Fold these 4 entries.
Entry 1:
Amino acid sequence: MNQATKKQGVKVLYIGGDKGFWQTIQNRFLRQFDTIDWEFHTWSVKNELEALSTFIDVIDFNPQFVYLDLSEHKKHYYPLGQLLGRDNFFHDIPVIGLIDKKEKIKEFLALSLDFIFVKGVETHDFVYHPVSIAMPKQVKKLDFALAKFNKEVELKDDLRVGYVTPLSIHLEGNLPMAPGEKVRIKTELPTKNVPSPSFTLRNIAQSNLYYPFQYAYDFDIDFVDPPEFEESEQDDALGEEDEKKRLAQIKKAKESRREKIAEHEGMLQVCKKRHKDWVFHSMDPDSEKATKVLFVDRWMRIFSDPNMRPIDQYKFGLRTQTMLSDEFEDIDQIRPNIIAIQLVSQIPPKYQRVHELVVEENKKGETDESPPEYPDLELSPEETQYLDVLRENLRDWEKSEVEFIGNLIKRIKEINNYSPVIVLFNCYFQSKEALQESFSYPLVMTNTNWIKLDSITGMAQIFTEKHRAKTAEAIKAKIDGLKKKDPQKYRKLSADDITEKKFFISKNSDMSFAEVKIPIKMRTLTESTVTFSTEKELHPGTFRTNFPVEMSIRLVNVEDGKFSVVDAGEHVYKGLIHSITEDEKKQVRRYINDVFFEPLMEKRQQEDAAYWEKHQQVLADKETDEENAEERAKETLGLNQANEGEATPTPNDEEVPSE
């Protein structure tokens, strides 16, 4: 599966089937960064389940760059893109998506890869951008024409829709907002139900997210824009001197206002009714994945399980991480109900039997001075070597795991209203009771075996059933309380009346995409980079703009490790341009040239204007001189012809005698 063209260099992995284009990318690497020893590899994925095993292979291979070709067999490569784009292992490893058409760009951007490039002849950015974030010291400053200006444009953030209720919508995205803020959001909700793009933010959070974004939003749907009133309707009446006419005009203006308000209210009620019916009709009681499970394993062993199915086919939300972040931000962000952790997970699966040997040695108190040998097991040289590694390090690793568990539980206790079940696999060195008592956390469970999918799927089902039963009990208690308080008013109240109705949108549906815009000031532009400023404090990620073309912007550090700088009260950001076609690249260049050469053109225009002004003056002076000369000539001629009409005597004018 692996095809290498160079050895022992910086590993660049391509996963796909377009060998011709991949060769073009390789040539660009070699030409643009010829001082680096590159090692190129080509893999492929045959089916959706193989995408999961390929993910493990990528972890094992540990490349410095990964190119994922999404232009063919989306069903095979898209799941792999989801794993690569979300896993902490690839935080510092650029993952680049390649597509051949731009129409589905928003769908591919949802993978949260570092870049998405549209295949074409120009491949400079395909290589320069990833290298600039992974190996910044190897990158020289771009020597492209720089357009400087200060133009107000719009920055787009692609949101994802989680679910819709009769009165609200739940979305996730990367833009900070404030509760109460009115926001115009482009959605795919039926316009006959929700004609207005106006929404009011009710709540914003940075936890319990489904997608790999920064924020979860709950918006109240405004449905219909409020009526607009012209102040001149009553102002005109103020200038009317006739009291009767003035009162009539005021009355007419008030009636018009009342009619518009009534029309708006009627339209609002109609739209609410339509939308509510649509939500009720669209709901699927089995679509909600009430339980979220997070698997943490350096080698993601569940992907090798023969019973493993595509991730989306499970009735619970299945999330994976090869490692947790240092401050456990991902725990609060995902808020899993069950956290399944493989302890001492740095041990590769191929060395698990060696690990078991060392565990038994440690139980027996074997010393390093006389380690046992295992001639009957026929250990390979690699296994023998790893056996020594484990003998030297395993006890320290076990102690480190206990410290890790303690830090994790400490962080969980800091989160309000959150108490997940923690299942520790390969926990042979500590008992459940000891850990529960040591960390004062009764929801710790242990398993001495290596992590297995079946052990968790059954637990997830039980957890879901308990959650639903608990919710039903809470609803019943609320109904009983209301009926006790006012039996007559609440006599017909049922669980269906007070249960919030939610239509969960499939992530494969176009309706799961939404878009919000904010104003920014674009300051500089090259054919590969852009800088802009905004009052918003943004997070790392990819945004979009339609100026000067529809393009994506991957935010990177501005300077000296700073993600942004503050100038004139605004945050200034730098972005690397991607997701554009060759024709759009040419349009960007033309715009830059127009701006870049504008001062020169102005100078030339000024010089031309000065020249023509001088030229006109010369012509005018010349014309004046000619007119003056003509006048002088006329004056002279006038003197010579002063006696015109009279005979002019000559010296020979005397009479000559005849012969």
Entry 2:
Amino acid sequence: MSLNHNSMLGWMAVLFGIAILPRALFLQADPPEDLSWSLAPFTDDPAAMTPARLAVQEWKGLAFQSAHPDSNPFVTRMLAAVMFILGTGLWQGRIIFVLAGCASCVLLATLVRRSAGPLAGFLAGLLLATNDVSIQYNRLALEETLVVFFGLAGMVAARLEAPTRLRALAAGLLLGIGAILVKLHGWLFVAVLIAAAGVARHPENRRCSRFLNWSSCLATGLLIAWLLGTLLHLRPTYAPIRQYFVPPPTANTSTEIILNTIGDLPGRFLTLGLGSGLILRMPLLCLLGWGFLIAFFLTSPSSISGGNAGLLLLVAWLALGLASLGLLRYRPLRYEILLIPPLCAFLSLILCYLLSNDSILSNICITYKSYFVVFISVIPIIYCSVYLVAVKMAAAGIKLPGLSYSDLVWPIIWPHWVQKLLIASGLLAASLFLFLHRLGPVLLGSCHLLNQRVRITLAGLLVFGNLAIDGVQLVRHWRDRMYNTLTASRDLGQILSSEAVVTGPFADAITVETTLRSCPHSGPSERLNDILEACPAATHLIVPHGDRRMWAAVQAAVIEGLASPIRVYDLGPRLDERSQGNHTLFRLNRATVCAPTAFERGVLYRSSGDALSAEQGFEEFRAAHPDHLATYLELISLKEDTWANATSTSVADAHAQAAGLAAKGRKVFNTADLARAAAIP
């Protein structure tokens, strides 16, 4: 079956199937702990599901108003519509993002196919479909996946190679949904479309008046999206925009602020970040895509105007994406997935060049003006490379002279190193410029002299290398997958009463598979009263052990008799390696409206030393929940003298229950904990 226009629909279906398999498999598993430097995959993911879950469980319909602090009205209603049909839970809340991620692969293939042919389109979609970083984020209920989907849909709808007013209107509506109703980062695609359309005007739209008419239709689509969001109350309330660009006020002197800003900018402008780890997760994709972008800007300007509209879209996407994300003060790794589709497209163009020996960038023109392009490209690469070396040296206990850092936060502030780095970057940029000026055209021209088998072999090695890098990471994530969120949430639904309200940073995660209400507290606090004021109806509090300020406040409340520890859970990355679990659930003793359950009574009596009453509480709980799976920490508690006679029976019961549930296809037990429980003497 050849890759031609007539068979492309079948290949798109194949591409969608390739994309959906790794995204939908084990959908209830936790995200990898090394996915991001922040806790967002473990907190923001269930936070997006919670308002929709509660609306479905309380039969509010789709016209409800959510008071959840992290709720996006548009996304919440989309999830609520899905949950009304499929039910509530982890996979139900994530499935729409899985489908959006798969559709993005098809849309990228369509966009590239129009510019470089069916083979390039299919390769671009395939690279995105198998990209491990995209896979892991598409499996979570995070808004960036929807931003990429609506952005790609808008650019495909615009069809710049044959623009019309109707297509501009449709593009504006789709881009407006992404930017106005989903997330502010969707404005990137609006800027990309306008920039590309302005440079590569279609012959029919050469006149400025035609371009203005096209732009007015695009703006009309954006206005319709804004009106839709306003009338239907779908527009989210964004945080102040300045917080993305301006750091909070500090007590530093003006000189220190200036030095810190100078030291910060080079690191912020390399968003294919060594700091975030993105370039280390997909080195071939990042380096070749970055090189393609540099090569494009070395192309003769006369060949760009009126050139390939799709190529200009992709170049503007990556260039403006690098610039916009580089300006952000707050830029977690999940924002950088907006850059992955154009990188995949550029690698597919390089592969097609090797296979067909037909250069898309046929007018490379290296002049002395190109030095600036090379210079600004090399500076952040040098800066971040030294950062990576510093991290490795610090891990080995070696400190660089004149380098001050705290816990290796990104970006590192190097006031005394900035000048040295700029000089080193300038020298390397000059060397690279001379190399490109003298040997660049020779190397590009020599590709025509390569044997066809050599070019095919080189292209095959690039494809295999990129797929191998992604495949190894994907298999490792599958092999090491955990179900801590699923297990903890189902356990919580059994040990607490239905009137319980849970608060804390991980409250949404711990209640995602239950009917319990949650009231998340989005940050550490030195006073327990701050948490209680934010959620006056809270009956329980879950606290991460690594959050020292909140932990100290809760410990003080325990001493004062205001809170009692109930259970310890593994949930998300382990912030405190010394603890057997990483989150503790506390019962707030002011919760008179929520009577303690039999399990809670057992815990409370055991902590007070009343062994007989504790045993009665636990036995009553086990009788009411015969399918309850004892966790490792519960089995550890059975080793106490009071429970000596029940230890072996409980371990055997846990194994029997796990085997029975596994036979029914239910994976609700942490197998590592089960193995540790079996080793209890």
Entry 3:
Amino acid sequence: MKRPPRNFKPHPFQYHEEIELVIDNLGNLGQGIGRVNGWVIMVPLALPQERVRVRIWRNKSNYSDGDLVEVVQASPHRRDPVCPLFGECGGCQYQHLDYPSQLDWKTQQIKELLRRLGGLDVAVNRCHGSPLTYGYRSKLTPHYEPRGEEKMVIGFQRADSRSTVDVGHCPIASEAINAALPSERTRLQAAAAKMRRGGTLLLRDSYPESAPTTTPSSKNGSAKRSFFFQAGEFFQNNPHILPDLVNYALSQAEGPGIRYLVDAYCGVGVFGLCGAEKFQEVVGIEVNPKAVELALRNAQAQAATNVTFHAGEAERIFADLTFPAESTTVLIDPPRKGCDEVFLHQLFEYSPARVVYVSCGPDTQARDLKFFTAAGYEVVAVQPFDLFPQTRHIEKRGNAPQERILNIMSTQDQNLGPTGEICTDLPSAYIPHPATGLLHLPRFIAKIRKHLRGELPKSYQRNFCRGFDRFLCLHLKVDPEQVIEIVQQCGDDEKALDDALLSLFPKDLKVHKWNRELVQKGMSEMGREALQEAKDKMGAGHRTDLISFADMIDFDEGRIE
């Protein structure tokens, strides 16, 4: 038997011990979940209803990870993957699962997110399927790594490591993007000898013209309309389902007595312009001036005379709005991190009759719903949309039949970047711990809680108890496992947790020394070189405002735009 890693915990299973079990669930990362005597086993590529043979490679505090060795009894919903790299490339998780079952599981996962994070037990409509289940992506951001003069690797992060798997053809990308990949490979190969490090490509298909682009702006179609947008900025990258999504959102924005629409976080104006014929007047509000310029250009191109756009200051979004609140729907489509408190305070103060919440992060949306329900809004229905077939990513939405109506539609975007899956609900490294004042400690605690629930993505597991986590514990003179054990024992009792941590940490804790060191990580000569390399890999090599690794964390997770 292969020798186990130095830090392998031999309980409850030995290293590479093979066991047989039945899979009964799918995790939010797309892995199969089964149990042996009540102990949870995570198994990638396994499906519910399957009996599988698994080889254990890691035991954690409350679950084990195993590799799929054999499917002893296959699920009736198992299918042969289209891509030969499925299971090796980390881009897709569900190619081995038939499409109707993908929609069923995504519906169930949305319901569970709302219950667990939003405290809402509401009906969830079946996930709305995509017209195309392959060849639908109009944007692709493959990473490239020069490996000598003979080979240029262009592709995506492997499912089980940080390295890049070479992808010559991506089945979920559009034909035009796949046609462009060989020429991009040739171009990069010619420059490989001069490259010091890799980077990220941007390939954008300007549907319906079907020509890939890396130009500053692109034109895309939706519901028989065309929109100009920045190629590097957000625009939904499944244009085939976009008309259904937009039409559904606008149908929920309509209602008795509703005459006005406010399109907040409006971007280049898709919702507002598509809704121009449904409302007496539409206003789009956006804090990005460049997006407002493009929205005005789109309005002019579509001759929309009852739609206006303006750049709103974050602190006074609704200050110049003259629409009566009782006749107005506000449609919001925030970034992955959800709505900030300043925006929500202004929204609730304005108090529109309806709110339609479109989101690219069901987890942060579920969190925000607590504030909406506290403000008197009620969720009546939720409608998921599957913008990313073959992957675990989702879109969703819902509504309610009273005076103050919250129509929720959340759209989960491809939450993957050069570092892997991105969590948008972890605290910034710059947030201090209330009881000790230590920076990063609240983030470490939040990561531990995700880890204990089996929800910490692989991209975070790689640095779990390493990096800042390890440096923090070294400063505290404690073992990370001690902190994990305390968090597990205290559960959600924050006072008990604070008391236990204070008793564990040294009495002469040098808080200011640690806080200063964390903020300055990346500022030494060696640190600056490593930081620049990390910025290049994340497509932010030109950014001069990211001066520490804590900045890079905030940038990666959307707290720095």
Entry 4:
Amino acid sequence: MANFRFLDGPLAPPGASLLLDMKNRILIKTLGALALGVFFSCASDDTVVPFAQDRNVAAIDIPEIDSLVLDSVNRGIYPDSLSGWELRWAKPISEGGAVALYVLGDSMPDERADKLANGSGDFDFSGAGLRAPLARLTAQDTVWRIPSALLGGQGKRIRTDTVFWFSVWLRYQDGAVGSPVRAYLFLGDNIPPQPGRVDTIVGQTTFAFDFDRPRDPTSRYDDSANGELSFIRSIWWRGRQLSDSSGGRAETTYVARDSVRDTSIHRFHLSLHGLEYDSPHLVILQMADDTGNVATLGPWPVNTRDATIPASAQNPRLSVDNHTRATFRWKAATDSFRSQTPQYSTSPNHGIRSYRVLLSEGGVAPWIAVDSLDLFANDTSNFHRGDSWPSIRTLSRFHWGRDEWEWSWPNIAPGDSFRLAMIARDRSGNPTRDTLFVAGRTSPIEGITCPPDKGLRPVKGTGQIGDFCIEQFEHRIDGKPATQVTWKQAAAACVEDGGFLCSEMQWEQACQGDPDDASARLQYGAREIGMDPDTLGWLLEACNMGGGPASVLRSSDLATHDLRCVSGWGVRDLPGHLSEWTLDTWTLRPDTIPPSRRDSWSGAYQGKSDQHDSISYGVLHGGSWVDQGNPNALLEQATCKGRTYAVRKGSLIPDSLGKSSAWGYRCCHRPL
């Protein structure tokens, strides 16, 4: 349900008079206060309190005596003597020297109390312009039962049209130093209608409400809330502030009176038509009962939509470089805003809010949104040809060259076909009439032939390792990632499959971004991990990094359908999903091991550890699904060189006998 705002004061006729001083008259009240059919006000309505506060009564209230009140309500008349209500208050903090306590039948202001004479004798109330007190009590009294005659007389009908005011005032020996404390009793209906669920719809030149019938309690004792409604209406004006309603610009529309009176109608629809499109408006929804109580919802800030379809981007082009990098170029889309037909403007990107790029693998796979750009989030005025978006020196796949857009994606698997699409929308969310499509194929890695039917990807060797083939995904058994294996079990499983557990060097090489430059820093999923500020968010979304506890790791294949989590060699899920065993013995300083002590093809080191003098401890690489509660650790483990130190024996030594549903492996093979 929306928040409520209620307009105090008498109802205004249709038109702007209600809105002229709205910002000064809107009050926010809680639903709890509105639920009271008899409203009690305890606070002083004066801005200056000249008397000592510690000599004032406090916590004034007018509760009913249930048996008498309910009987009176049922019979519609007052009891014979007492009305059924009591005036109650709390004693002042300082009672010393109090002479008398007076209950007055009006809201005695402080300035009238000042006119009363000091001393211990009776006061001249008439001389101060006040009526005689209703009761003169001692300072020890805290309750006064309200007589029936005061509220309309014995045996008479209950008065629902009169507000009865009371003041409680203490007089001290040293003078009138207590401040009058006020309350009022109203037995009529002062509860505004209670709105139900409201749904709103924004159009190009319209704004519509769908809302439940308001419920109207008629008194404190009305449980049905089926009071009569007088009207339901909406008032709106163009602008962003309440004061914009001045000058006669406000307009009003009503729900048909017959519909308001027909209690069989439980849901209403109210449409505002003729709003200027692509413009800000403020809208309120009002409802009133038959006694004049008004409830107001809003104001809602409404921005109407653009009424035109933006002109499509033009001249789509695709280029593929270095086996894996695809570059998509197009002329900017544009929107003429207020023309009834799409038009091009001399200003590129005029009125365009966003560009969104989608990728499909193999020409038949489902589309996945891989990137988007919000033009309104940044200023293009300082852009120069070749700069990155959204600002100079900010890593981005979007580049604006003053005459066309360029979007680059570095990690499409070598030798794969793919499709790219681009959708442009204006600032009202209207898509262009046409979606741009391009299709292409990356170049395969030449000179490496992998064993068939094992889901392998070729990787060129460099430095201490030769060419090799690696599983595109973590090793699978019966179609699901193999987990809960120790380091030795993983190595044995790969040998049984005809290959070898990948070495650290091979794992890191497969993780690199550019097949033609294996020394390049990782650009996994088109993000340079550790450099780009939104790397962590990218990994969490695309690569299943740190998604939850290992105990609830999904048993199905988590990441095979996310085209974003792929290296430049076409290897998937290296930074996330599962941490993976590698063949090397765990050492404290792997970079210090001489080449002569490593395997000549894989670069694996299987000698003794420089820390624990054993060959029985393997190395995990890559971050996992497990949430360790440490974002910095996630980023470190996601890099190609980063090891995962989650498996420990004692405080330092990785434990190769450990196993987890968050740890797996992948096998490497020699090329044919």
